[in-house]
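Structure ticket #2291
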Amino acid sequence: GCRGLGDVYKRQDKSYPKYLTKKQAAEYLNISTQTLNDWIYNDKLCLPFKKIGKVNRFNRLELDRFMTTNK
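Resolution: structure written out below.
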């Protein structure tokens, strides 16, 4: 399920780039890559990401906003 925003902010001592890979995004959100895949394909969640060719990129600030609005 969704984690609280506090869990996200605890990890900000580690340096994350503005745009995350799928693996980095899952780590940042403290979820498995499989859960992240589930969220990507769940149209009701509207997880913010950009598909560039075959690669997904996740804006860290948009992920923070997503977590605050999807509790």
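Closing remark: Residues 60-69 form the longest helix (10 residues).
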